[in-house]
Amino acid sequence: MADITTTSTEFALPTVASYPILIGPGDAVALPIRFAPTSFGTKSATIKVFSDDPASPGQVSVRGQAPSGKIAVTGSTHFGRVRACCVDERMIAICNTGDCKLDVSSVAFRRKSRHWKLVNNPFPATLHPGSCLNVVIRYKATEKFARSCDLLIHSDDPAMPTLCLELLASTVWPEVCCDDSRAEPCKRRCREPSCCTRCCDDHDCRCDDTDDEDDE
To answer: pTM of the full predicted structure?
Structure first.
């Protein structure tokens, strides 16, 4: 055997110290071909073997399939009604239900907002088949009107490279948020975020003292 070639580098040939390789009558030499795809999809190539056989080169067609990872998300992104000045959290799981690894490059809001924050975000990360990582989303109930927010998940899943999740929450403002002596003037302002300091003390919930405009 004088040489061996492939029409695609995704089908790696065995390393041979030197040619020619002598094969005796009735003998055989095993030549392992390694499939090493660099992208997803069906791959094919032709392997040619050159020798002193008058019918040379002999050739064989090879074929392989490179499946991708497949993204899936579980968990609710609908927070419902949250009392003013309080925070609520939801946890979603980002999973790989495919046959190969899945690279998740980022998980982030489409636009920054002080009302929404990712308090646990392990991405970017690689998910092996059957594995999941959790993301915790926090809503701070200080906005006047119910408003949605988009969470974008970018991965190398060719069927869904960008997954958009809609986050929904609304703030429940109390009728009065200050002491009785100032009930009427405060009632006119209690649907404003500036009244949250007084509202928070009356609610049986966890409050977030931070108010960073740049929080995601």
So the answer is: 0.69
